[in-house]
Design brief:
Elements (H helix, E strand, L loop, with lengths): L144 H8 L10 H9 L9 H5 L5 E3 L5 E3 L8 H4 L8 H9 L12 E7 L12 H11 L5 E7 L7 E6 L2 H6 L33 E5 L1 H11 L9 H6 E7 L7 H13 L6 E7 L2 E6 L4 E6 L24 E4 L8 E5 L2 H10 L3 E5 L3 H18 L14 H8 L11
Parallel strand pairs: 4-6, 6-7, 7-11
Antiparallel strand pairs: 1-2, 3-12, 3-13, 4-5, 8-9, 9-10, 11-12
Helix pairs in contact: 5-8, 6-11
């Protein structure tokens, strides 16, 4: 498993998750044996001692089994005498072989007993509590429950991590940042999104450990991902960008955009130039005002309609299942699809890590592979929708979501405007701390170290966006968009650096684990539990 710029010797060896690009009902071939998955831990099939049964019933040595004989090691009952009737070619047996097939494999006719009328048939040879047809010396009693209890007491290996551990250590602890990386990482599509906008198990967990490994608040050491993506200088200051600008799009539609409308300008240019087929952005829910949902924009009109910022997460990476966007991608070959994604720094960390490994991510796989451009939004923290809009604004301040025309977080202030552009709230962001996602406190990535382009308002004057170009791919997008922009050098680099430093300081105070960009990318659950005091094997403790 190679990584982009990483040292494979540092990487943890992942649990064996076989890749498969075939239909679900086809046998998965395991590289260790070259054969189909065994039926049990012992690998017991009917054939033994190296004789693998073939479709024709012959073993690998050319021997064969019939209703009367067996050469594979299984005991077969002795054949009984033939039926008296010359017309009846069936061979009677003592429970071995097919009763209506003769020794030449010819299928005979079945005879059925006529049902009795108006009476119950006697189906017992002796008494109702006597089992019929049990061979001598065979005990068919049900195993005692103590055997099952002993099996339940078998400890799960520490390196095998289940969704319940992620649930215990991150979700139940209120540390989930709703990035959706666990949903995207699951190779069995076992993780979905609940009514509370949090990941939940929707079918059996296989214990592959990937949801844990790729979680930015669980098993993924995000600062190591910065270094793998951007190199040594990517962990210092605000990173090591190629260049920085203050820019805005010169167009009437920017009135509804955030600051200078640069994100929408870049994405619309990429669409017009045929560089991408769509962009995964946030849109406002039709059912709940100011609640963000993921949306795949495939036209400039859709991008302009969804310009602006909504201050809650969309679990964006959990919405890379292209089947849900199939109606917007007519006649598109998914293998050739190119997408852009706009997200918070943690979401970009997640997509970068997922793309570094050639796993089969099932429903999300084509979407993950299709992402060619990443744009991070500067972010100190995000909010729980119900806490921010319901408790903080509507209940405490008497402001209904329907009254709000625009929201912004700038210079440490939460600013809310009505539909006429009048400011109706201007308060320190700390006043809204109870509505923030708890896991955001542990994030040291204000400027999106893993993105191609970072965009925000810090460091630029009103109506301009601060733009940080981090990669050659980002530079390519900038150069295509440049003719549409009014731009100049970033006005206040120190403001970006100071806020990045403040964000790191807060993260270092909140992180219970060491911050180490040179450590392995993935943190074992046992190590995490040691630092955070989480339960090992929570299923053994009544989880």
């Amino acid at each position: 498993m190679g990584t982009n710029g990483s040292d494979d010797t540092e990487e943890r060896v992942f649990p064996t998750v076989p890749e498969s690009n075939t239909d679900d009902d086809e046998a998965v071939m395991f590289p260790e044996t070259g054969g189909a998955a065994p039926r049990s831990r012992e690998g017991t099939e009917h054939a033994r001692d190296g004789a693998i049964a073939t479709d024709g019933g012959e073993s690998a040595e050319g021997e064969s089994c019939s209703p009367d004989t067996c050469t594979c090691g299984e005991k077969t009952a002795e054949p009984a005498a033939s039926a008296d009737s010359a017309d009846d070619k069936r061979v009677a047996t003592d429970g071995a072989g097919a009763a209506n097939v003769d020794e030449m494999g010819e299928l005979g006719e079945l005879e059925f007993t006529e049902p009795a009328e108006n009476v119950s048939q006697d189906v017992y040879d002796d008494a109702p509590d006597t089992r019929v047809g049990i061979p001598d010396g065979v005990d068919l009693e049900t195993p005692e429950y103590s055997i099952r209890s002993q099996m339940n007491d078998i400890e799960t290996p520490d390196e095998k991590t289940w969704f319940m551990e992620l649930d215990e250590a991150v979700i139940d602890e209120g540390r989930c940042i709703q990035c959706g990386t666990c949903v995207a990482a699951c190779p069995s599509d076992s993780i979905g999104v609940g009514d509370d906008d949090l990941p939940e198990l929707v079918k059996m967990c296989t214990g592959c450990s990937l949801c844990w490994d790729f979680c930015p608040r669980g098993g993924m050491r995000y600062e190591r991902q910065w270094k793998i993506t951007g190199g040594e200088d990517n962990v210092k200051g605000a990173g090591d960008p190629i260049t920085e600008f203050s820019a805005k799009v010169e167009d009437d539609w920017t009135d509804g955009a955030q600051d200078g409308g640069v994100v929408t300008g870049v994405l619309s240019t990429l669409l017009e130039e045929g560089e991408i087929d769509g962009a995964l952005v946030a849109t406002e829910s039709e059912e709940e005002e100011w609640k963000a949902e993921s949306f795949l924009a495939t036209t400039t009109e859709e991008l302009i309609e969804n310009a602006g910022t909504v201050y809650n997460q969309t679990l964006a990476l959990g919405n890379l299942d292209l089947k849900q966007w199939e109606h917007k991608l007519p006649d598109k070959d998914w293998d050739d699809l190119s997408l852009a994604i706009v997200g918070t720094p943690c979401e970009i960390e997640g997509i970068r890590a997922l793309q570094d490994f050639e796993w089969d991510y099932q429903a999300q796989n084509e979407g993950i592979r299709a992402v060619d451009y990443t744009i991070a939004l500067m972010c100190t923290k995000n909010f729980n929708y119900h806490s921010l809009m319901g408790e903080q604004l509507e209940e405490k301040r008497g402001i209904s979501p329907s009254e709000i025309g625009k929201m912004d977080v700038l210079n440490g202030k939460m600013m809310v405007y009505d539909h006429d552009g009048e400011m109706i709230v201007e308060e320190d962001i700390e006043n809204f701390h109870d509505a923030a996602l708890k896991g955001c406190d542990e994030c040291a990535d204000f400027t999106g170290f893993c993105s191609d382009i970072t965009v925000g308002s810090v460091g630029s004057s009103d109506e301009y966006s601060s733009v940080i170009i981090r990669t050659d791919q980002g530079m390519k997008a900038w150069e295509m968009t440049e003719p549409k922009l009014d731009y100049h050098d970033l006005e206040d680099r120190s403001a970006v650096g100071k806020l990045q430093g403040w964000d790191k300081k807060k993260a270092f105070e909140s992180l219970e684990r060491p911050f180490d960009p040179d450590a392995p990318r993935f943190i074992d659950y046992t190590d995490h539990a040691e630092n955070y005091g989480t339960a090992l094997n929570p299923h053994d403790q009544g989880h």
